[in-house]
Amino acid sequence: MENILIIGASGHAKVIIDIVERENRFRIAGLIENTFKKPGLKCCGHEIIGTEERIPVIMKELKVSGGIVAIGDNWNRANVAKAIMKVAPGFRFVSAVHPSAQIARDVTIGDGTVIMAGTVINTATKIGRFCIINTNASVDHDCIMEDYSSIAPGAAIGGTVTIGAFSAISIGANIVHKVKIGEHTVVGAGATVLKDIPPYAVTYGSPAKVIRGRKAGDNYL
C-alpha cells in the first residue's frame, strides 16, 4: 500500500481522511499544514508532520509517493498544488472517491480530485484535475468540470453542463441542461440557473441573476 500525505488539517481534510481510510487504497503517512496548526498536533488520528517546504525530505524519510490537497477553497487549493509541484516535482497527486458514490463506468476523473459520499455522476462526464464534488451532489450526463472547480453538497447539475475552471457551485444550487458556467464564477446557495453565466461573476436567486463581478481569488467560502 502506498504512503501518501494529506495537505491540510481543516474540516474539509477530515472528510478526505475518512474517504481515504474507507477506500483503503493508500496509507496516510501524515498531514502537511502551513498555516495555523503546529507540527505534532493530530487531526482524525493523523499527525501534522511538517510544512510544504519539508515535503521532499518527508517523501524520502517515509517513502511517500504523493497525496491529496485537502483545501476547500478553489483558488487556495490551486496555489498550494502549484507550490508543491515546484518544491517536489515528483509528487503524485491522487484522487479519492467515497465508496458510496455512484459513478458511470466511462466517467473520467482528473488527478487530485475528491468525490464525496452519496454523489451521482452519470455517463460521459469529464471531471478535471483538483476538483471537488461534495456530499449528495449529482452531475448528469455529458458534463464537463474544468480544473479546480467545485460543486457543494446537494447541488444538482443537469446534462451537458460545463463548469469553468475555478468556479464554485454552492449548496443546493440547481443548473438546468446545456448551461455553461464561465471560469472563476460563484453560483450562490439554492440558486436555479436557467441560462449561461459569464466568467468572473457572482450569481444567485431563482431564477439566478448576475449580482456583481468578482476577481480571481476573491473569498467565497
Q: What would the CATH topology of the largest domain be?
A: UDP N-Acetylglucosamine Acyltransferase, domain 1
Cα Rg: 17 Å
**SS-derived structural category:** alpha/beta
Strand content: 25-35%
CATH class of the largest domain: Mainly Beta
> Which series of helices and strands comes N to C?
EHEEEHEHEEEEEEEEEEEEEEEEEEEE
Please name the CATH architecture of the largest domain: 3 Solenoid
Whole-number count of domains: 2
Q: Average pLDDT, to the nearest integer?
A: 96
Terminal CA distance reads 35 Å
Helical content stands at: 10-25%
The CATH superfamily label of the largest domain reads Hexapeptide repeat proteins
Q: Based on DSSP secondary structure assignment, what is the total number of beta strands?
A: 25
Summed up, the helix count is: 3
Strand order of the largest sheet: 7-10-13-16-19-22-24-25
